Every structure is written in C-alpha cells, then in structure tokens.
C-alpha cells in the first residue's frame, strides 16, 4: 500500500494544533482500541507533551478485553490517564469529566493559592478520522452542543462545546491524519476503517488479516469458517475459506477477490469476535 503523508498536511496540522494547545489545560485523545498506536496522529504526542492527557480507548467493545487492559496499563505507565470506552453505547463516557478534573488538579490548586475563582477546564479533543471522536462528543455533550462563544484571543471559527459547568471542549475538526507510511500501520488503519476503501487493496488487507489471525487468534478464525486446522500457507487458507463458502468462479477455481472481501467485511462487522490488531509487547509503531 503506497500512501503518502504529505508534508503540507503535516505542516498545516502542526500549525493548527500549536495554536490550540496554548488555550487548553488538558488533552483528550480518542484512539481505536483495536490499534491504539496505529490510530494516533504522530504529531499529537509530540505537540501535547506539556499538557496532561486522557487517553480514550474507544471501540473497546470490538477489541480484545485482555488487550484493552494491557493497553490501559501501557498508557498509564507513560503517565497518561486512561478510560476504556464504548462511545456507541455510551460505556465509560460518564467517567470522562471526573478524570479530566483529576488531571486539572494542579490548576485548581494554583487558582486556590492565587485566590482566583475557578473557570471551566478547557480540554482539546483529538483523534484521527473514524476513531469515534464525534460519537464521544455527542455522548458527552448531547443536546448541549452549542457553540459557547469566543474566548479572548481565539479565532471565531473554533468550536467550543460546553459539557458541564466545569468542562469546556475544544474540537479539532478534520485536521489530524494518521501516519501510514509504515505498511503495518496502513493495514491496521484500512482494517479498522480509518482510511478510505478506494485507496487500499482488499486482497492485500485480507492476506494481512488472515496471517495475523492465524498467528494471534487461530481459534476465532477456525470457528468463523468451521476449519479444523489453520493451514500454514495463507494461500491454502484462502482456498479453504473459498471452498467452505462456495466462493468459486467458473471452472471451480476460488474467487480470491470475493474471499478477500468476505474476510475484510467479517472483520469490519466484528464477526470474528473481539480482536486487537496490535499488542503493547510487539508493537512496531
Ligand atoms: P470520528 O468523529 O472520529 O470521525 O468518528 P465517528 O464518531 O463518526 O465514528 C465513526 C464510526 O465508529 C461510526 O460508525 C460510529 O458509530 C462508530 N463508533 C464510534 N464509537 C464506537 C464504539 O465505541 N464502538 C463501536 N462499535 N463503534 C463506534 P459509522 O458506521 O460511521 O456510523 P453508524 O454505524 O453509527 O451509523
């Protein structure tokens, strides 16, 4: 998969984040729990290091529960606060304001020392496309999503959202792209839906997924396609799945394109069960 991360995009995103970072107290980062590192923008970590961060492992309902816990430990060890969430069903969302408040404790202490009235905490919410940022915002703010006017020195177009009396959210519409020069990262983003279907090859992604499942989740693979043993060669696995499902072209040969689409759709629809595509201990990103 040849996908470029254009330097122009990077420069623009950098400028936009830099502008925003000055106005905020806390960063809330939404990632896809099925690929927590692959689904992060590389700029974010670098540019937000000066701010406390809450990592949301979203789509946790689709990810391996054991891995959700491991990834939570991983980020906590790095000094971040973490919540395992399912924004679609609203699970874990109500804990966000409390976590943000904990992260803002030094700020409250500073205000108390200076005897100033606390203002709402300002959190920047970020996430690559499709990680679930809008769903999180809707769950958090619901009907209260209204622009809450401009802060001093802030451009009008910025989107501030009031969550409650203590928390304002600053959204970052459409500026953060994942980095997918690494082919593994590219495949994970294709599988999880972060990059558009027109720019990747189903067959390549299916091969990647089947190799990964054979190694890491063989039982789920066997049960989905009623296979007794997973063959070593991925080509044989394609044949087996094609035969099981009767995905043939004339002459009785396997239709690899349709098998690829089936495997890909099965993953996207969660038909294999709960799967995490990268593990903290073996992560390449
Ligand atoms: P974005 O703003 O980060 O781009 O993502 P958005 O909230 O639009 O979510 C992208 C897709 O992911 C949506 O599905 C959304 O419903 C789904 N999603 C968000 N959070 C979760 C979660 O925790 N679990 C699961 N399973 N899905 C989640 P969609 O197919 O684009 O739309 P729809 O199916 O909701 O109609």
From TrEMBL:
Biological process, per Gene Ontology: ribosome biogenesis; translation
CP-type G domain sequence ranges: 14-178
Binding annotation for GTP: 58-61, 130-135, 174
Keyword list (alphabetical) reads:
Cytoplasm, GTP-binding, Hydrolase, Nucleotide-binding, Ribosome biogenesis, RNA-binding
Role: Required for a late step of 50S ribosomal subunit assembly. Has GTPase activity.
State the organism named in the record.
Bacillus selenitireducens (strain ATCC 700615 / DSM 15326 / MLS10)
> What molecular function does GO assign, one term?
GTP binding
Q: How does it assemble?
A: Interacts with ctc. Interacts with the immature 50S ribosome subunit. 2 molecules of rbgA bind to one 50S subunit.
Single GO cellular component annotation?
cytoplasm
Q: Which PANTHER family match?
A: MITOCHONDRIAL RIBOSOME-ASSOCIATED GTPASE 1 (PTHR45782:SF4)
Keyword GTP-binding included in the entry's annotation: yes
Could you name the domain of life of the organism this protein comes from? Answer: Bacteria
Which InterPro entries does the annotation name?
A: G_CP_dom, GTP-bd, GTP-bd_ortho_bundle_sf, GTP-bd_ribosome_bgen, GTPase_MTG1, P-loop_NTPase
Q: What is this protein called?
A: Ribosome biogenesis GTPase A
Which family, according to the similarity comment? Belongs to the TRAFAC class YlqF/YawG GTPase family. MTG1 subfamily.
Where it sits in the cell: the answer is: Cytoplasm
Record keyword Manganese present: no
């Amino acid at each position: 998969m040849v996908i470029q991360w254009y330097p122009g995009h990077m420069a623009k995103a950098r400028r936009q984040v830099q502008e925003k970072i000055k106005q905020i107290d806390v960063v809330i980062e939404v990632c896809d729990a099925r690929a927590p590192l692959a689904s992060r923008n590389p700029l974010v970590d670098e540019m937000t290091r000066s701010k406390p961060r809450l990592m949301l492992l979203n789509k946790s309902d689709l990810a391996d529960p054991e891995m959700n816990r491991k990834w939570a430990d991983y980020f906590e060890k790095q000094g971040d606060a973490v919540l395992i969430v399912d924004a679609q069903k609203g699970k874990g969302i109500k804990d966000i304001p409390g976590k943000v408040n904990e992260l803002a404790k030094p700020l409250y202490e500073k205000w108390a020392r200076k005897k100033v009235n606390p203002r709402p905490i300002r959190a920047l919410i970020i996430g690559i496309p499709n990680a679930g940022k809008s769903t999180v915002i809707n769950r958090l703010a619901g009907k209260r999503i209204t622009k809450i006017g401009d802060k001093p020195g802030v451009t009008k177009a910025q989107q501030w959202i009031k969550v409650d009396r203590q928390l304002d959210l600053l959204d970052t519409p459409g500026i953060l792209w994942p980095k997918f020069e690494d082919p593994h990262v590219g495949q994970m983003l294709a599988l999880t839906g972060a990059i558009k279907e027109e720019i990747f090859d189903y067959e390549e992604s299916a091969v990647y997924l089947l190799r990964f499942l054979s190694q890491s989740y063989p039982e789920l693979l066997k049960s989905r396609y009623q296979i007794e043993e997973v063959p070593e060669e991925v080509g044989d696995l394609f044949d087996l799945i094609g035969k099981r499902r009767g995905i043939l072209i004339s002459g009785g040969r396997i239709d690899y394109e349709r098998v690829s689409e089936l495997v890909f759709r099965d993953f996207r629809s969660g038909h294999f069960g709960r799967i995490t595509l990268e593990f903290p201990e073996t992560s390449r990103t």
